[in-house]
Amino acid sequence: MNIPKKTKRYCPYCKKHTEHNILQVKSKPRPKTKKNALKLGVRRHARKTSGYHGSTSPKVKPVKTSKKVNIIFECAECGKKQYKLHQVRAKKIKQGV
Ligand SMILES: [Zn+2]
Q1: b/e for 20-32, b at 16 or more Cβ within 10 A?
Q2: Which terminal CB of the chain, N or C, has fewer other CB atoms within 10 Å?
Q3: CATH code for the domain defined by 1-28+64-97
């Protein structure tokens, strides 16, 4: 997927259309919590997978192979950043054509 480096967009802070630099940020994965570390299912799974036995259920392959990318617009005049509401799902993102 190709995205340009600069676009003209409305800036709500300047209240007019200005040049915006396009930055891209990969969406971060959710942090793993240790809240459920001692629940019964977790303990049972640990007991079953301990020793020489492998995993109890077949590993699930990911259905989606692409990743979500956040696109950020930075106003060239005031320097404020605006997030695009919708994340773009793409395997590769090229910038500047
Ligand atoms: Zn601005």
Answers
A1: bebeeeeeeeeee
A2: C
A3: 3.10.450.80
Q: Where are the domains of the chain?
A: 1-28+64-97
pTM above 0.85, yes or no: no
Return the pLDDT at 85: 63
Reported as a single tens digit per residue, the pLDDT across 49-91 is 777 766 667 777 888 888 788 888 899 999 888 877 667 788 8
Tell me how crowded residue 52 is: count the other CB atoms within 10 A of its CB. Answer: 4
Question: Which residues have a beta carbon within 5 Å of ligand 1, which is an ion?
Answer: 11, 13-14, 75, 77-78
